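Journal club prep, notes for RB
We'll compare a predicted complex against what the paper describes. Inputs for the adenosine-5'-triphosphate case:
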Amino acid sequence: MKKSPLPLQNICGNEKKIIGKEALVKLLRWHFGFSDFRGKQLEAIQAVLSGRDCFCLMPTGGGKSMCYQIPALAKPGIVLVVSPLIALMENQVMALKEKGIAAEFLSSTQTSHVKNKIHEDLDSGKPSTRLLYVTPELIATPGFTSKLTRIHARGSLKLIAIDEAHCISTWGHDFRPSYRKLSSMRSCLPDVPILALTATAVPKVQKDVIDSLCLQDPLVLKSSFNRPNIYYEVRYKDLLDDAYADLSFVLKSSGDVCAIIYCLERTTCDVLSAHLSKNGISCAGLNNKLRSSVLDDWMSSKIQVVVATVAFGMGIDRKDVRIVCHFNVPKSMEAFYQESGRAGRDQLPCRSLLYYGVDDRKKMEFILRSAASKQSESSSSQDRLSKKSISDFNQMVEYCEGSGCRRKKILESFGEQMSASLCKKSCDACKHPNLVAKYLEELLTVCTSHQRNGSSRIFISSSTDMTHGEQFSEFWNHDDEGGTSEEDISDSDDGTEIVRSLAGSKLSRKSGVKDKIEFLQHAEENYYRNKNSDKQVNKLDKNAISETMRESSRQRFLNALKEAQQRLGTLRYTGVSICTLH
Ligand SMILES: Nc1ncnc2c1ncn2[C@@H]1O[C@H](COP(=O)(O)OP(=O)(O)OP(=O)(O)O)[C@@H](O)[C@H]1O
């Protein structure tokens, strides 16, 4: 139901003084229906309304948006919100408009008619817009900067809120170069308070954000990052017969709950969502080209489970997500915290489930190492970041492979000390210590046997959705640990070793003939696609992985694929795996 517009607006006029809690709570109740502020919301709101800069760290789902939405309602003028994603802006603006709040966003996706109307309002001298959402890219354009300067000169710009402020920092996991340009706002728009908001707790990020934005004597508000309503759990793919079936079982036995399943690759999203649907789960795959109909169906509860790459979810405010599952190990604890934090935004009990596999770990290590070797050829700051990404990933490995409380590991990775009693058995390691210890022992055996067998791998890919936007077109590699090398394989008499290896990670013994044929055809297509692209091959030649790309081994590989298609019934398993990433 729409509310009448802003009955309590301008409660504080233009004065820079601390506004009492009561008046602000009234606004909160009237517009949002919440009875009281949460955590540090009130302090942040009071600070910015009094004209002070503020840096606000709140856990995922903590209610950061309210810290700039209430000021927009309490004071005349515009609150400018800088937000990293158009989808995120659209969602927030739509939700605010439904509440009768005058919010707009400016983006390239809008028609010129809509944009003109917004600009007319901004230029009117007495804009009705209370919240204006924009991307950092727009702020960086000279035209928009001078528009903001004019609005400010008329006294109509009341606050600049930088959402997801960790994107400013090169230490943040979502670093966006255009965010860095926001630093100019302080000089263009003096006196306008800046509110930086993030759920990223790493101290280096905090300092970087504060310095980059030139915040002056900011009020720094930090809340605990603990999410007590999330139960943390890791399942070990290598110890399961079939991880797909296991996940189906988990979802079915949890009832018809809302869930997000994250996969590293789009192909896995498609395959997994098909599997879950076949098992009667209300589910759809959503790759990182957001398909709005799937998103709408999920937001409106027509479907309950969405299988997506990690690009999905930032700013999606479905409160009743009961399970967030990572079907592949995330690249860092920060990313894991953000993504798992999309569960239980209603503060009710929910679950974070991570499927950990040794193959997945090696794949991610390979990707990060490849990126690192490429970047170390360029600047030293990139080199530093590559090393950081590898050590960030190691924290994730420790979360899965190490013993002890999972919650403690999450919080400690953000520099927050946790008392032993805080978890209250709300992670698998605290709830079932003996079982988890047994799994870890078994996992160790699996890892040791992987190493003994010399786990080599072949990746074929035209992926664009990997870490750091890297494009891995085609590469062959063998693990540093030694064991069977690619040369060893390709020197075997007729290439059958490669044939046998093809079923490694992608196909299981239970896969049907059709799956196997599709898989091999796919590999072949990728092979040709990449072979014809000199540019890609040349690019790879410059990198560490190029040495084994010789025509003889290519030919053998192709022969092996052909042979495999004929010998489908006789595939055997070696330590070698092939992965297709599109
Ligand atoms: N004071 C409050 N009382 C109850 N619910 C609240 C309150 N403040 C915010 N919420 C609700 O909490 C949910 C999370 O808020 P919000 O989207 O602002 O979180 P966030 O901190 O931006 O999280 P994330 O970093 O995960 O995006 C929203 O549904 C919001 O309506």
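Talking point for the session: Residues 4-8, 455-509, 527-552, 565-582 have pLDDT under 50 and may be disordered.
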